[in-house]
Amino acid sequence: MSARNWLRALTPLGWGAAVLIVLVVGVVLARGVGLRWDPFDLSKRQLEAAEVRAASAEKDAAARRLEVEAVQAQARRTDVHHQTRIAVAEATARTLEQAGQADDADIPLDEDRGDRLRAHDRRLCELAPDICVAASAGSAG
Q: Each residue of 113-139: pLDDT tens digit?
């Protein structure tokens, strides 16, 4: 059968299959050469969306790092505050015990001396109010 007879013998279905095969081969060859057909700029849109997601992920990661650093700093400050409260409570307890066992524990203080000591205490509490609160809580319990 010659090529002309073969072409005449094709049915409409055969012609459709032949055209489809030629298109597929053409697309494969075009892609192999590096040609791209993207009439709706889908590749560009996908790239932009990926860049937006990457930027968002970087911002989220930076925010999480800041949160972790803040939590760690808060834990350090809380630990320092706790240690200070313990130290003040221990010092207060020792001072109260020594004051109760002193030889002059039953002798009333001179009023002027008591006023000076209270004024000094008030000044210390103005300078470090959180320590005064810790000391009064420690001596109350």
A: 888 888 888 887 887 777 776 556 655
- Say how far apart CA 80 and CA 136 lie, in whole Å: 18
Joined together, the tokens standing for residue 130 give 């959180």
User: Distances in Å between the alpha carbon of 46 and those of 34, 54, 85, 93?
Assistant: 19, 12, 58, 70
Side chain identity at 48, as an amino acid letter? E
pLDDT, tens digit, for every residue of 28-67? 887 777 767 677 778 888 999 999 999 999 999 999 999 9
CA distance 10 to 20: 14
Encoding tokens for residue 77? 């400050």
Total number of residues shown for the chain: 141
Q: What is the pTM of this model?
A: 0.47
Query: Of all residues in the chain, what percent are helix, strand and coil, respectively (each to 5)?
Result: 85, 0, 15
